[in-house]
Amino acid sequence: MAKVHVSTHPLIQHKVTILREKDTDSLQFRNLIREITILLAYEATMDLELKPIKVQTPLAEAEGFELQERIGLVPILRAGLGMVNGIWELVPQAEVWHIGLYRDEHTLKPVEYYNKLPVAPTVQVVLVLDPMLATGGSAIATVDILKRWGANRIKYLGIIGAPEGVKALSEAHPDVDIYLSCLDKHLTPEPEKPGDPPKGFIVPGLGDAGDRQFGTA
Ligand code: PRP
Predict the structure, then answer these.
(1) Tens digits of residue pLDDT in 106-122
(2) DSSP letter string, 119-185
(3) What is the pTM for the complete model shown?
(4) Residue nearest to atom 13 of ligand 1 (CA)
């Protein structure tokens, strides 16, 4: 079964609280997404493989390590884009392969619109990036695409997850570990009256992570 890691790091909890606040503006929202992703990536990369190497210091030869595996970042467009730069600061050599999906607002099913993966996998470890794990449909579809591509070590990094999405993703892909900052309560139901939020949003969540990052709310 998939391991689900919900961070207890105080910095993550502090930053996610500001992220949720409805009056946090786009600039601060983008900065927080980047910072939280760095902290999450620290937790999600604990088991990367190393190979021993030797380097020459000004004084002597030293034994050290370098990353053995090639790492791929797969942001799910649009909202996952904001998570790339934080990880690039830690792993500048990571390759970035974009997957474009949007969620149909009526069916909540993911619709694929962009995929330029090369024929054969070029990386050994893939980190799927998307701030919001709601129904889990987008994450499952992305992992399906990556597995068809040939990726076999895949991790999912998200900022906020709903129990429904965590269950769906871990059942569909039990080999994909899930790293989240927070596990929220539930998804919004079908609206009953005007003014109710649309269905399928995480509660309490933070609203629409794509719109809030890109100023398109
Ligand atoms: C949001 C979010 C996830 C997806 C989550 O994207 O960023 O990709 O919905 O929902 P799910 O778990 O139910 O699939 P959206 O479709 O709003 O696209 P956007 O990132 O372009 O705004």
Answers:
(1) 999 999 999 999 999 99
(2) SS---SEEEEE-SEESSSHHHHHHHHHHHHHT---EEEEEEEE-HHHHHHHHHH-TTSEEEEEEE-S
(3) 0.96
(4) 135
